[in-house]
Structures are given as structure tokens and as C-alpha cells.
Amino acid sequence: MTRKPDLPQLLLDTALTLFAERTYEGTQMPAVAQRAQVGVGSIYRYFPSKEALGNAAFQYAKRTLLDDLTAALADGGPVSTSREEFALLWRGFTRYAGRHHAAFVFLEHQQHDTFLAPESQALAAEVDLFAADFIERGQRSGEIRAGDPQLLVALAFGAFAGLVKHLRPGGIAELPTEALTQTEEAVWALLHREATR
């Protein structure tokens, strides 16, 4: 007996794939239905509008990212330096971008302000605070350079997003371990505060 797929999750996954391929603005509900091989009415049973589907996809993608980052920190055990914590966060990002490539592309390469509901904006702010907290703690310890934490987060995220974009269509999952380590070192160098002599 075959297990019936989780239709809401199938619709979210399908929407994320299409949003990554065509952008949110360039994706119509019938295209989602066709790719998911369901009737358009099936989508509206779970998501009453394109905006509702977009927000659900955004929240799923952001929540999964936050969960992957939190899990990477937990799996790595206690850390004593910002560099060690960065390595764990890098691992979480690479795992997320490898397992959820379409979601990563959707989050990092598109504008979302045209359709985000307050719940989605609050979740985005939670992820931003998570990242800014890492920067601020590193600045207090003297390991991370001075500057606006949000700008430094944008610098590091931008570098990672550029790497993922450069590696399309295979994505970061196809990057050899040695190259992944080199890119981790390069992005850390963007954040690291050099010791003064």
C-alpha cells in the first residue's frame, strides 16, 4: 500500500521550486497546480490566495533555515570562540542550501515585501536577530570587526548567496569539501577582526 503524499507540503515544495525558477511574481497558481499534478481548486482548499501560498512558502523556508542553524549549533556541542560558532553556522547554511536549494534561492534572490504578511515579517525579523546576535557577541569578544551587525550579516549572507548562485544548477551540494572549506575561510575573513600589533 503506497502512502498518500502530504498535499499541503507537496504544494509548498512545488511553489518554492517554481518561485525559485520563475520568481514569485512570475508564477501563477495554475502553473503550481500543473507542476504538482493537481487541480487548481486543490490549492485553494489549503491556500485561499497566491499571497497565502507565498506567505506559507516563505514561512516554511525561513523556519526550516532557522531550525537547520539551531540544529547545527546543537549538534556541534559547546563552542568557546566565534570562529568555532561560525563554522557550525556555516555547516548549517550549507546543509540548508543543499537540502532546500529552491527555498534558499527563493529567500535570497527575490524581493518579498510585496506580499509578506505580519507573521512572515516577524519570522524574518527573528532570523535577522539570530544572526545579529552572533555578530554582536563576536564583537564583544573582539573576534568580529566593528560595524553595524545587520550590515555585517548582509555582507556574509551576500557572499554565501553569491556562492550558491555561482554554483547553479547543481548548487552547493556539488561543491567539493576542500572548496567548501576555502569559501568558509574567505567568508570568515570578511567578518574577522585582525589582531592589532
User: Please, how many helices?
Assistant: 9
CATH fold name of the domain at 57-191, please?
Tetracycline Repressor, domain 2
The radius of gyration is: 19 Å
Number of strands: 0
Question: Uncertain spans, ≥5 residues at pLDDT below 50?
Answer: none
Reported for the largest beta sheet, the result is: none
How does this model look, in words?
This protein is mainly alpha-helical and 197 residues long. The protein has a domain at 57-191: Orthogonal Bundle (Tetracycline Repressor, domain 2). The chain is built from nine helices and no strands. The radius of gyration is 19 Å and the shape is elongated. The model has no long low-confidence stretch (mean pLDDT 89). InterPro entries: BscR_C (IPR032551), Homeodomain-like_sf (IPR009057), HTH-type_TetR-like_transc_reg (IPR050109), HTH_TetR (IPR001647), Tet_transcr_reg_TetR-rel_C_sf (IPR036271). Residues 28-47 bind DNA. This is TetR family transcriptional regulator.
Element layout with pairings:
Layout: H1 7-22, H2 29-36, H3 40-46, H4 50-76, H5 82-99, H6 101-108, H7 118-141, H8 149-166, H9 177-191
Helix pairs in contact: 1-2, 1-4, 1-6, 4-5, 4-6, 4-7, 5-6, 7-8, 8-9
In short, what is this structure?
With 197 residues, the protein is mostly helical. The protein has a domain at 57-191: Orthogonal Bundle (Tetracycline Repressor, domain 2).
